[in-house]
Amino acid sequence: GSECNETSEKLSKIPKINFTKLFINGDFVEAVSGKTFDTIDPRTGEVIARIAEGDKEDIDLAVKAARHAFDHGKWPRMSGFERGRIMMKFADLIDEHVDELAGLDAIDAGKLFIPLKMGEIPAVADLFRYFAGAADKIHGETLKMSRELQGYTLLEPIGVAGLIIPWNFPSTMFSLKVAPALAAGCTMVVKPAEQTPLSALYYAHLAKLAGIPDGVLNVVTGFGHTAGAAISSHMDIDKVSFTGSTEVGRLIMQAAATSNLKHISLELGGKSPFIIFDDADVNTAVDLALNAVFYNKAKNNPTGEICVAGSRVFVQEGIYDEFVKQAVKRTKAWIVGDPFDSHVHQGPQVDKKQFERILYYIEQGKKEGATLLTGGNTCGEKGYYIEPTIFADVKDDMVIAKEEIFGPVMSLMKFKTVDEVIERANNTIYGLACGIVTNDLNLSNRVSRSIRAGVIWINCYFAFDRDCPYGGYKMSGFGRDNGLHALHKYLQVKSVVTPIYNSPW
Ligand code: ADP
């Protein structure tokens, strides 16, 4: 590989790793088997810590604790207001420990420290506040019955939730699942990704300090095919919320179907189109497109490891050449390096497997005849660093245009007409997001309504907001994170009917 950019200013010390065991029923405990696994620093490929390796027996213990806390404990029975107050306290503790939490995700996932500290972790605290505010506003409806009956609905917590999360946003994903589940009054077992277990254990510690009762929030670290699979097939878990690959989403749905028909929601892969029309300002369009694929200045992932990445960039023919020129120029100025350095734009990929997978796709792009405009190499002597990469002349049926790469690889495609680009943009098994760049209101309205995806970003990208539902169409899954839609994933509806005037029924 080529040289990684030399960097100087280190921002923070690596945090001390205090929590490496499973968190079950309010205590940190070893796995039943006594086994551990290594979590790796993607900057160097070296071991950060040995983490307790939970498996089926540990999931059983965690579910037992969660079941007891749900069936007999205070959490589902206390007032929503009281739950909200405890969640607010949890949020304050997250803010107070922002350096530790940002440091843990930076070292474990290779994410940039400053965006974690300034953006992602504070947003996690705020998401807990958002759902804390909803906890005392959960109510059903008075029904308009057709006969002499009084009917109303109750919204009740669904029970024990299994929350399986991926490594690309360890903190955000934790909060997207845990915050609405807590607000609803559920108890839960969280399985963080094996690549990034550190911050979830730290959140568990803070949850206990905040006063969340024992057994309500359990964290079992371990692998997908063991601990994860034990969650999806468990007979005593009422709901699974999963974010990850489409392939694993399918396994989870099968396991739910063949066990207890637990409710599920899935947030899966994507291959989102980013469409730039002729009237767009090229500078702005390039900024947005680079942002949509490689990184996000404000607060997101600096490695392209994001399921909504706008990785198919369609550029209208009138500005195509100018767009390509500027995109390449700006990408070459990217600084790839240590995520603790404030000058760096892009850190390492999360692990060796992901690193190799991205390099495979880059090779595939070259083989199938796409034009490699910049990047394509690894960089640095050690660690999992890859240059931001742009391919032009990408055809719709090439592998790099169809499959999710989950890395800093942009595929550029030229188009002529609106109808053509709508059809091509929709020609995917996925439907997570879509970006549109134009100043023509009628055009953006028309395209927004024609694209089959869960989120449309016009003249922006990654514009997440806690009140804005987020989730997929088609094989990108179903169910929404963020917003009150997320709360309803952890609730179920009960109808209560009584006769009016004591009339006999
Ligand atoms: P990625 O391909 O992005 O690593 P995965 O879908 O493999 O995403 O992983 C996302 C989460 O799902 C992780 O916590 C992982 O351990 C878990 N997981 C993987 N395989 C399974 C499985 N068969 N059943 C349940 N969970 C799984």
TrEMBL record:
Keyword Oxidoreductase found: yes
Annotated Gene3D superfamilies: Aldehyde Dehydrogenase, Chain A, domain 1, Aldehyde Dehydrogenase, Chain A, domain 2
Catalytic residues in the record: E267
Catalyses which reaction(s): octanal + NADP(+) + H2O = octanoate + NADPH + 2 H(+)
InterPro entries per the UniProt record, alphabetical: Ald_DH/histidinol_DH, Ald_DH_C, Ald_DH_CS_GLU, Ald_DH_N, Aldehyde_DH_dom
Keywords: NAD, Oxidoreductase
Domain annotation Aldehyde dehydrogenase: ranges: 29-496
One MF annotation (Gene Ontology) recorded for this entry: aldehyde dehydrogenase [NAD(P)+] activity
Subunit structure, interactors included: Homotetramer.
Family as reported in the entry's similarity comment: Belongs to the aldehyde dehydrogenase family.
Protein name: Aldehyde dehydrogenase 1
